[in-house]
Write a structure and sequence with these properties.
mainly alpha; about 50% helix; about 140 residues; 7 helices; elongated
Amino acid sequence: MKLTTKTRYGTRLILDLALHHGKGSVRMSEISMRQNISVKYLEQLIRPLKRANLVTSTRGPKGGHMLAKKPEEITLGEITRLFEGTTELVNCISDPEKCSMIDDCVVRSAWEKAGKALYDELDSITIADLLANKKID
């Protein structure tokens, strides 16, 4: 399984906001410079994060973005689900009609079990956990 750029960069965006949690709004241009991600791409990422109530925004000269929740309340699983759109490793788990071998498939349950294990692990890791392991300049 390969995570999309949206998931990886969306996580970096959340981590950057978490580093500044409780210090007010953070401008997109500042995040862009620190994370080496274009402002245009960050603007695409911020929309689903706002819809998921993970980020809030304020307009104006002192505007910017901030976490809507505490870093310990946001999991890596939540971010991954948001950007990946599914937790299933194969299509036949969520849509059995897509596979003509569904009744005879011996590996389907293994894929399902592996996906559950992956997301159980991602759900156990909070943004605060990641920050605790990071060297902060």
